[in-house]
């Protein structure tokens, strides 16, 4: 009887169905496609935007450039906000999803400005009447599209790579997990380079040949596909929970140090609060006023497990030292702002290229907006040569592995950027003299008998400067900041670009204001042949030279820097269990060993 009951119950019990594990390689194409299509859409509208604003909205050159500076500043700053929102509030999946929707909406609104005639000023008539300027609603609609695009980038850019890495945190002990993750990172960055090159060449070519309606419509379609592909794989994603952000820790240290400003420094080391079992037991003497944030005022303030009863009453020594490390690198971080200002002058080479001979063959000429790809090509070639040719050759000559310290490469990048501005000014000086000699002083649309391929030189120098400074700075931040601050290290370069865009606008406006007067044309006139763009380039070169001296002073003040293998540094375990899941095995260049030139 009992046997029959057991058989009956076993038949009636449901057979457990093994659910499919989430994450893994199946999610990779969707994440990479989302990022790549967003890059094509966003980078595709930027190179020719100067032409669109000056021709269709009849903005002056200074107004156009300042608007683009503000747009770039927002685009570079909002990813920092997006990282905080993703880590502390919404999670990475939702942040990327909302970013994709905002980017699509921004692309669609920008496309509507080209499709709807009333969305921009009417064409000038030939009856001698003054051309109508841009109205307030037309200007606001344009700025609204820029804002939506920046918000979208702020959601996608800081989260895609980390969200892709999260897809391998599925709990299995696959021995090939690290290799697959590194392969994903390589494909991610490869897709970024390819997508940007497609944007600068293909999308710009469509805008030049088929007009703005097609040129802005294609990016809008691509952005729709980007959002669609990302949401299609939603059931397969690993969606990790949000966690506290390191920015909160910084604010807490500052607040608590201010609250405890009247306390005396303790005589015993035990009066400082620190994490159990790890980290420094006593804070360092540098920036000593912050040490008051980790003073234990009363034993009752600490729980039996060693955690603060109220985190806003005192902090740990580790939290204080993290803020100190960030403050220490800020002067060196500020030296990179000038090189970012130089790199943000994209409208000047565009106008130069438009006035020069761009024919590759008799029947084909390169679009003026596509000359920006020379910078990225030069950057890629330099990284490959440095990593695969120069370092192995130098190591073979010296008989031991050698490498340039990150801080040395940062300085070399500033110097090369200075040389790029000098060369740009020389080329512009020659171009302007030829334009005047050919009778094109009052015709800014006239073609000068001078090859635009002379612009390869300054673009290549800019690419080498960015490769040296940007990669060197990123390695410097990762090596000298604590392991728990890797998210800050990755955000510092974008923050520098945002500040640089704002300062570039200040410099441009000041030059325009103080170089024009009664009967005197501004250096940065909308008529490239009447202005003196070469003087502006040389002013930037002079500012970069002073910045190089400032960099030397900052290096002296900072002292010896840490020189470690960045790849190994990023793979080593963190004190925080959550931080382990977020650190990525990034392939940094020239990290073979700790020996340096």
From TrEMBL:
Main subcellular localisation: membrane
Domain of life: Eukaryota
Extent of Acidic residues compositional bias: 573-582
A Pfam family reported for this protein in Swiss-Prot or TrEMBL: PTR2
Region named Disordered: 1-20, 573-597
SUPFAM superfamilies documented for this protein: MFS general substrate transporter
The entry's keywords: Membrane, Transmembrane, Transmembrane helix
Any one GO cellular component localisation term in the record: membrane
Gene Ontology BP terms: oligopeptide transport
Localization annotation: Membrane
UniProt key word Membrane: yes
Chain ranges passing through the membrane: 67-86, 92-112, 139-165, 185-206, 218-238, 363-386, 406-427, 491-511, 535-559
Membrane topology: Multi-pass membrane protein
Claim: Transcription is one of the keywords in the record: no
GO molecular function, one term: transmembrane transporter activity
Coiled-coil intervals, chain numbering: none
Listed InterPro entries: MFS_trans_sf (IPR036259), POT_fam (IPR000109), PTR2_symporter_CS (IPR018456)
Family statement drawn from the similarity comment of this UniProt entry: Belongs to the major facilitator superfamily. Proton-dependent oligopeptide transporter (POT/PTR) (TC 2.A.17) family.
Protein name, entry field: Nitrate transporter
Organism: Solanum commersonii
